[in-house]
Amino acid sequence: MSAPEAGGAGTLRIHHLDCGTLRTPVGVMVCHVLLVEVDDRLVLVDTGFGLADVASPRRLGPVRHVLFPDLDPARTAVGRIRALGLDPSAVSDIVLTHGDLDHAGGIPDLPRARVHMLRAEADAIGARRGLLSVQRYRPGHWSHHPHLVLHSPGSTTWKGLAGAVPLDEVAPGMLMVPLPGHTPGHAGVVLPLADGRSLLHIGDAALDAETLRTGRVRPDVRLRQHVIADDPATMRRTQRLLAPLARDPEVLLVNSHDRGLFEAARARDVR
């Protein structure tokens, strides 16, 4: 279920969780969520699906007939946290790569948590303009009016990625980096690892490992990302910026749905 990245005193403990396995026609995918232990608090990067989605799958809309998610209470973020012997009520903050239904579904399960995202993403969720936005941003995930903390791009650059936003108040060394294209306010999240490297979770900025390693997109992946991207041209530009980081030995790069990247991250248990 998870492999913690841990180090000495004062370092973060990071668990890699699958919070909603997707059994799509093109293969099995994961919903790669990060759980970060920060002193006596917990922080999530994305949430996967939530308990209400499990109880009433129709709230996910027609896309559930394409994603075929394993909707199981034990696979939700709350279920995964409890299985680790931790208390979900200790989740103080959720940092979203973006607001898609398979990333934000668990937000209602953690109503006291602050929800961090780029302002452009919050604007897109609020507007829900166009068929794609209506399908990807589900009202049930936001109707409880969560405590949103909105961020504008910052003035610094991290490893060639402009607009980095420090989130030290959430977790020491955490950054949010704009990675637009898949959605208007899509972001990546950076966390320091105990071995001196950085973990970069890129969400859906690239859908598979091959795209990141080679810079080339398989025809089936290109079709998928074109169909679900808010701006396919911008998404391709983002991927060109990410390609060098996929080969950078100082960066452990993961995304939301590539099963191979997820399993590799779990296997790298830094103690």
Tag the structure with descriptive keywords.
14 strands; single chain; six-stranded mixed β-sheet; Metallo-beta-lactamase, Chain A; alpha/beta; 271 residues; hydrolase activity
What does this structure look like?
The chain is an alpha/beta fold. It has a single domain, classed as Ribonuclease Z/Hydroxyacylglutathione hydrolase-like (Metallo-beta-lactamase, Chain A, 4-Layer Sandwich), CATH 3.60.15.10. The protein contains 10 helices and 14 strands. A 6-stranded mixed β-sheet has the order 1-4-5-6-7-8. It has a 6-stranded mixed β-sheet with strand order 9-10-11-12-13-14.
Give a topology summary:
Elements: E1 13-18, E2 22-24, E3 27-29, E4 32-38, E5 41-45, H1 51-55, H2 64-67, H3 77-83, E6 91-95, H4 101-104, E7 114-118, H5 119-127, H6 130-136, E8 147-151, E9 156-158, E10 161-166, E11 175-178, E12 187-192, E13 198-201, H7 209-214, H8 219-228, H9 232-246, E14 251-254, H10 259-267
Parallel strand pairs: 5-6, 6-7, 7-8, 13-14
Antiparallel strand pairs: 1-4, 2-3, 4-5, 9-10, 10-11, 11-12, 12-13
Q: What is the compact description of this entry?
A:
The chain is α/β, with parallel strands linked by helices and 271 residues long.
Give the helices and strands as they follow along the chain: EEEEEHHHEHEHHEEEEEEHHHEH
CA radius of gyration is: 17 Å
Derived from helix and strand composition plus strand pairing, the structural class reads alpha/beta
The named CATH superfamily: Ribonuclease Z/Hydroxyacylglutathione hydrolase-like
- Percentage of residues in helical conformation: 25-40%
N- and C-termini, Cα separation: 17 Å
Instruction: Estimate what percentage of residues fall within beta strands.
Output: 15-25%
Largest sheet composition:
6 strands, mixed
Number of strands: 14
Low-confidence stretches: none
Q: Mean pLDDT across all residues, rounded?
A: 92
Oligomer type? single chain
Strand order of the largest sheet: 1-4-5-6-7-8
